[in-house]
Amino acid sequence: MPNHLSPSPVSIYAPASVGNIGPGFDTLGMAVTGMGDHISGYLDPALEADRIDGISGAWTPIPSSPEENTASIAARFLLDRAGIKTPFRMTISKGVPGSGLGSSAASAVGGAFFGHLLAGGRFSQPEILEAALSAEAKVSGGIFLDNISACLYGGVTVSHGESRTSLPVGSLPGIHLVFVVPKSTLKTSEARRILPDMVPRKDAVEALANTAGIMAGIMRNDPDLFCLRVSDPLIEPYRKKLIPAFDSLKQAALASGATGFAISGAGSTTVALTPREERIPFIRKSLQDVLVSKNIEAIIFLSTIDPKGVRVADS
Fold first, then answer.
1. How far is CA 166 from its chain centroid?
2. CB-hemisphere CA count at 13 Å for 199?
3. What is the spatial distance between Cα 107 and Cα 113, in angstroms, rounded to a whole number?
4. Number of alpha helices (DSSP H) and beta strands (DSSP E) in the chain
5. Phi, psi (rounded to 5 degrees) for 159
6. CA–CA gap between residue 37 and residue 40 (Å, rounded)
7. Is 46 exposed, middle or buried (0-12, 13-18, 19+ CB in 10 A)?
């Protein structure tokens, strides 16, 4: 690419996401509104190497070295594929709080989309997905598509880990989400380590049925069915032990009008779901009462399903 590259900046928004959506372990993902990362920057021929000029808003330490950060790794993956060796400047504003909302995925997908735009918007969504996955694998050593695909495509997605492919299913208006995001975070590796190698058949069958019910809820445009089937008999019984006051939060949410309640991704964030907007204040208060009574530091966020996925900021 010529040395007189335009330094025109680009700005990316990559939404937070919910992995699993309850029963769809490592398969279902859902992008959500109101929480997301902003990544901005431009190609700078004056630099000798890629540079991250700043990272703000992170709840946990994030590498600032371009060789160790998923956003910059994903961006460079696509720029190299396009034959563009010119270094870039990047600034990252983390807007995905806590753990369990796809923070790492938002960085990886946002960085990949950033590289896609700097390369002239030449890459397909599967190629952007590949770049984000490559960055995640390089940093964490694992391949998990649920959050990455939801952040990329928006709405609800279905992923297949072995083939490294994902399909956007669609979105569903009318579903209201009430997140409880504890200040204490939970590592995904710890949440995976607690899971058994073998699970009861009846729990596996119920989880499959509920996963199918979530898909049916989208296809039938039925928010009630969607929220009702966000129930996880398979993984939740093991992981809930790692989340303070989980049973109390779930009981309070359901008693105050929530139709569903689940761990968001691996936790520690949880989410209550309802198709009835008028119940939100009651759900929120009941959850807050539990947090106060149990002396748990947490933030409550109101959200909905984000139908767009990663995009140019403010678009």
1. 14
2. 17
3. 10
4. 10, 11
5. -120, 155
6. 10
7. exposed
Instruction: Name residue, tokens 């004056």.
Output: 46
Q: Is residue 287 a contact partner of residue 178, using CB atoms and an 8 Å limit?
A: yes
Q: What is the pLDDT of residues 240-292, one digit of tens each?
A: 999 999 999 999 999 999 999 999 998 899 999 999 999 999 999 999 999 99
Say if CB 73 and CB 66 are below 8 A apart: yes
Q: Is the dihedral of CA 201, 206, 207, 211 positive or negative?
A: positive
Helix ranges (DSSP H) in 20-118: 70-81, 103-118
Length of the chain: 315
Q: How far apart are CA 113 and CA 128, in angstroms?
A: 7
Domains in the chain, please, with CATH?
Answer: 10-170+306-312 (3.30.230.10), 176-303 (3.30.70.890)
Q: Which pTM value belongs to this model?
A: 0.92
Containing H/E element for 282? helix 280-293
Q: Render pLDDT for 42-58 as a digit per residue (tens, 0 to 9).
A: 999 999 999 999 999 88
* Peptide bond just before 72 cis, omega within 30 deg: no
